[in-house]
Amino acid sequence: MNIFLRISILFSLIYFTYSCSQYHTVVSGDICYSIAIKYQITLNDLMSLNLGLNCQVLYIGKQICIKSSSPSGSCSSYYTVKQGDYCYLIAQNNGISLNDFYNLNNGINCNSLQVGKTVCISGGGDSGDDDTTTNSPPVSPSDNLVTKDEFINAVVSSGYQRPRDEQYINFVTKAGPDGSITSKRELAMFLAQILWESGGLVYLSEIACLQNGCAGSYVTADDYPGQKYYGRGYIQLTWSYNYKAASQDLYNDLRLYTNANQVALNDGIAWAVSFWYWKKNVHSRPGVSSGQFGATTNAINGALECSGPYTSKARQRFEIYKKVLVAFSIFEAPIENGCYN
């Protein structure tokens, strides 16, 4: 290995160890997702705090950083949180990206911003952005099919934890461009399916594959060396040919095919891929445009849940959809048809 690369890696590891203010000790049964959820951080945050962490091999007793401390004196300008503020709004009003805001406020919990809290909005040095970051365009409330409150209410009323600001932003800004969704009802159907598939916007990787990458599964002769193509994203994308097709359609390159784990680690990509899947496999199916929720379930997992032994799961999806409709202020009778009836 190049000596300069060795030094760079060593410096990075020393820095992140030095700047870590709280650790978690791995116990039996821990996986990266469960650790991230326990401390209310994203999987991307966990990986950023632990450079080189291998989530497929977590040793009992290993120390994992779950909160970093900002270097003293790194902030040059502060903002005091007011009633109605949320992270994206603060970042937008102060001319910085949401990613910059997170970097300036390590460990901040955007789901519980307290009025009067002081946050950093400007600091010296580079913000830490890199070429793989997928930034969302500014959000204008008048341009969105659903409001932030409607989105939060839909998730929480369905029995899941409050979503992050970043998830709302990616949800509303990618629905049209990546999913061809232009109606509030279809967006409600999409979100209901996503909530079921991801355990409430929590799981972005196929749980059964987190320990060993599902070695031997999803294998074709066209796989890129060193890559495993198990399920990732809010609607789990599998097989190399799907990663390749999604990458070409969304980004005009092969970034997801050559680095599949981006789909699980980057929230913007996870949403983009899920909307892409919907556009390709669900959006144009008969019954979807007329509001038949069962038709969307049939398109996603019909062999098992519509004509197979797991119709109870399809009914659970429909129960979530009914709650999302109410949260979205769509006061119409939900249509169950298209799956098992």
Automatic annotation (TrEMBL):
Family annotation (PROSITE patterns): LYSM, PROKAR_LIPOPROTEIN
Domain of life: Eukaryota
Keyword terms, alphabetized: Disulfide bond, Plant defense, Signal
Signal peptide: 1-19
GO molecular function, one term: chitinase activity
SUPFAM superfamilies: LysM domain, Lysozyme-like
GO terms under biological process: cell wall macromolecule catabolic process; chitin catabolic process; defense response
Entries under SMART domains matching the protein: LysM
Ranges where the LysM domain occurs: 22-66, 77-121
Coiled-coil features, chain-numbered ranges: none
Keyword Nucleus in record: no
Name used for this protein in its record: LysM domain-containing protein
